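Final report, closing paragraph on structural work. Over the funding period we assembled a curated collection of sequence-structure pairs, and we close with a single example.
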Amino acid sequence: MIRYTLTRLALLVVGLAVASVLIFLTLRVLPGDVAQLIAGTNSTPEQIAAVRDQLNLDAPLPVQYGAWIGGILHGDFGVSLITGTPVLAELAQKAQVTVPLGLFAMTIALVLAVPLGVLSAILRGRPGGTALNVGSQAVAAVPVVWAGMMLVVVYAVWLGWLPAQGFPRAGWQQPGPALRALLLPALTIGVVEGAMLLRFVRSATLQAIGQDFVRTAAAKGLTRTQALIRHGLPTMALSVITVLGLQVAGIIVGAVVIEQLFSLPGIGRMLVADVGNRDLVKVQGELLVLTGFVLLVGFAVDLFHRAIDPRQREAA
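Its predicted structure, as stored:
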């Protein structure tokens, strides 16, 4: 297990290094003069020269990349060209909104998808199972922006139960208002992602029901549901965790859109604003952090599979 963990960790580092190179090159091969784009169309030659000197744009690309990565390895993501504050400090502040939003949305997706997916498989061929299957396909096809707008209309405008936009200025020092501010955004992402996950849970459940060990357990006196819960869930967990790991990227993309819709001061909204403001230093830091998070989730999924699946250990 230690050797496998070290191997996957090495692959994680290589993947992150490749991603950093792609992010760096993509932001520097954009059409036009990068310094001109950052300084603005009405900037003077002196202002453009100052930006070029600040970003070290006159140096060769390998030197610029080495300086950027060297700073990151020492915990320095650079300084924002707009606000003048350290990028890492702003990322840490915005993560206090984005990370709870993602965890909240993932929890909602699991709470909805796992029991309803299992129930849909158990009721296969019956009206209840058909209704769950059709309903999940319909909800999964709904754009996340439209779903968010509908939830705002119902729960914020008509019923007035939850705030439509914003986040408490004091942040998590006011936990009640902070949770209420995240409920509608998390519900928007969680319901759509949960509907897609429900279909995979249903498929994994149907596959588990057909396994010999589940049928044997049922033949020994257990009901089909009891046999599925006791002996089929570990097999189902492998497929569900894999799909859930892949959905993390979808949740991040959804968070970018939802933070704009609900005016949440998170990383996604900051990224959109920084792209518009041409804050190159912050954009490349934000993209690297989001990419690293997705790769880290994949690393955790691999370790989880290795830990609970004896077939992988036997093959090794």
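The mean pLDDT is 84. The chain is about 80% helix and 0% strand. We thank the funder for supporting this effort.
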